[in-house]
Design a protein that fits this description.
Number of helices: 11
CATH superfamily of the largest domain: HUPs
Distance between the termini: 42 Å
Number of domains: 2
Largest sheet: 6 strands, parallel
CATH architecture of the largest domain: 3-Layer(aba) Sandwich
Number of strands: 9
Strand content: 15-25%
Structural class: alpha/beta
Order of helices and strands: EHEHEHHEHHHEHEHHHEEE
Helix content: 25-40%
Bound molecules: pantoate
Length: about 280
């Protein structure tokens, strides 16, 4: 398996391949879990070669402690990938290699998607995501790329990024992978104590209750239900629960039949911020 840390070496290698080879791309920040492996499997099925990037991107963190404590498990990640397939190439650059002494974001417009939920709570986050992905797409020039629906807002934003900035890559969304207790898989789960990881099962349980309740109630009533449920669990701090249009991500005020809605949540436990979402169908 090839591991590259230098962008020019990666570019030279990819350029040496036949132009007819389809390159699939799975961008990650490492601490790989089953959700990432499912993105890799999807890419392996549909492309000749898969590039996996492992890079904890500083410009998308609005909280320095979160950046510092983000799990970094490169050796373990490499072992997992080795077991999965020989057709995966890893790109694991340093911050200097990517940002060349200027670790800042460019600003991006995503037709307002960036002003909702995560964009409101994490100022600058989606500029950081746009910056790193534009750099990685330019280096790798993939035919298609894969993103998990756990970060549903990010997925919609990446679709907008490639459309608005004419980046020639197909964006694929892949379903959320959950632990057996329902907790959405996330690299940040690594930071939870065993007890918190078990208790965090209530997030998906409450999302499901909300989905069922929403069939016969308004958006406001459903939000109140979720807030009340979380108020019974003092070790959880609900940051937001919103029901939004899947396309525009704008909040659902009155239900419209022709729209698909999704419930989005951000919640803290042990000071670790977890996000999840569910289709409200
Ligand atoms: O979802 C992530 O892990 C990151 O936001 C991404 C897409 C790899 C960009 O750094």
């Amino acid at each position: 398996m090839n591991i590259f840390t230098k962008k020019n070496e990666l570019k030279t290698y990819l350029n040496s391949l036949s132009k007819s080879k389809k390159i699939g791309f799975v961008p990650t920040m490492g601490a790989l879990h089953q959700g990432h492996l499912s993105l890799l499997s999807e890419s392996l099925k549909n492309n000749d070669l898969t590039v996996l990037s492992i890079f904890v991107n500083p410009t998308q963190f609005n909280n320095s402690e979160d950046l510092e404590k983000y799990p970094r498990t490169l050796e373990k990640d490499i072992d997992l990938v080795k077991k999965l397939s020989k057709d995966i190439l890893i790109f694991s650059p340093s911050i200097e290699e990517i940002y060349e002494g200027n670790t800042t974001s460019n600003s991006y417009h995503y037709d307002g998607l960036e002003n909702q939920m995560e964009g409101k709570q994490r100022p600058g986050h989606f500029d950081g995501v746009g910056t790193i992905l534009t750099k990685l797409f330019t280096i790798i020039q993939p035919y298609q790329a894969y993103f998990g629906e756990k970060d549903f807002q990010q997925l919609q934003i990446v679709k907008k990024l490639v459309k608005n900035y004419n980046i020639p890559v197909i964006i694929n969304g892949c379903p959320i992978h959950r632990e057996t207790n329902g907790l959405a898989m996330s690299s940040r789960n690594e930071r939870l104590s065993k007890e918190a990881r078990e208790e965090a099962a209530i997030i998906f349980k409450i999302l499901n209750e909300a989905r069922i309740f929403f069939q016969n109630h308004s958006s406001t009533e459903t939000i109140t239900l979720v807030e009340n449920e979380f108020s019974k669990h003092s070790n959880f701090k609900l940051e937001y629960f919103e029901i939004a249009d899947e396309e525009t991500l704008s909040p659902c005020i009155t239900k419209e039949d022709n729209k698909e809605y999704r419930g989005f949540i951000a919640v803290f436990i042990e000071d670790i911020r977890l996000i999840d979402n569910i289709s409200m169908k």
